[in-house]
Amino acid sequence: MPAHLITRSPGPGPRASRRARRLRATALAGALAAVLTPVLSACGGDTAAASGGSTLKWTSSYFPTHWDPVVGGSGAQFRELALTYASLTRTDETGKAVPDLAKSWEYNDRGDEITFHLRPNLTFSDGEPVDGAAVKAAVERAQKQKNSALFGDLTSIESVDADGLDVVLHLSQVDYQIPQLLGQRVLQVASPKAAENPEKLDQNPVGAGPFVVTQLVPGTKAVLKKNPDYWDAKNIHIDNVELTSAPDTSTVVSGLQTGVYNFADLDPSQASAAKKAGLDVFVQPGFNASNLSLNVNKAPFDDDRVVDAVRHAVNRQEFVDKLTFGYGEVTDQPFPKGYVAYDPESENAYPYDPAKSKKLLAEAGHKAGDIKLDLVIPAEDPQAEIVQSQLAKVGIKVTIKIDKNWATPFFAKDLTFSLYATTGRDSAVQTLTAHFGPDGPLNLSTPYEPDGFEAAVAKVRRTPLESPDYAKTLQAATRAGLESKALVFTYSQPNLIAKSKAISDLPKNPAHIDWTGVTISGSR
Hints:
The protein is of the alpha+beta class. Helix content is 31%, strand content 20%.
């Protein structure tokens, strides 16, 4: 599978890919848990207590496949990489960009140039200075490195100048989204010295984040310690982190109960068991949304009536009821309700109406059973079975085909019909262009885009985020994107975390895991 096709994805693939990784890892992770239990207990218990420290024992189903942030910064893995790497900005609980490595920033009068002012006296964990030159190197590497997952996010940046602690981004267009864009997901900054050899950086990550990696077993385990030189170290109260790759979903709760872990991302199916076990189930807001991906360049979706028939055949509530265990909600947009980019005017534009679906298919000249579709996915996924059942009710026969190399034809836009799910972007515009733009990696119908979308997005970029017209302008762009025939959204759900009650609640920053102010009681 060509690496560049996978790493450019701005979000995880279908939920099945997550399940598949867990299933494949079950035997290894089970053995690992058995071997590491005494080690982890010692590190997180006796040793930590003896040294007066506190240890976070985090098991993650999104354990990084790459620790080079240019390669691994897409999808959900940026949350783990944020242990090691800091960014120019971060987002607060409202989703607004706030300072991180950069203490402030300002645009020029035209809005096509932005200057970030970095905090003084910061260093990476290898002692190299965090300065404008380091940021310039990070941007240019993200744009040019062959296996970069981020180059498509940085198309507005034409060139970069560095002057001491200042870094100036010259833009190819007016774009007020840059502070939102350059948060944890898109530009985690690595030491330029370490990044001279990206392969070594992948094995020995060097950043300026809250923790420093001291041991790394690729794909399995990472051990980290608090970074005393982190700019906000005074508000980091965790001394050590043990990050491991999660075993099968069903064993995570037992691992939390026995103390092998004290923090884990959680599948909704396990939430009830976690609560019964006396664990905290923490709901972390997210930008997650699932969809059916259609290729309008291929029959039968080159007929708008067939596309609309599929839209009306989808019963979104069934996805919520069967998959989210009370934690999700229906959505027909790439954003959850209540988010600034969610467009109320577009809500329920294509309500569930199987009778109308059948009528549209008949108008298009199709009898029941005429249309036969292959739904190609990377692994078993209950979403696919729901889609198969719902479309069967209107006379469309769906055959589920599993292709472990699914990413190659998906991102090459060779598939006719598939599923996808994303975790969104801090910049709503980037989420929109990824789904609906002519070069969007999640647009299975490339180079197709809906009429008026490009102009609507350009207007958002030209609108400062503090403008009273921003929300209205952004929602209009969402509305323009939803004219696309290439995607049918189904449901969204937050990120669920199960944790020991000894760990305090985390800041509810959408899609992020922020350790600022978090404490672990009983460890000091």
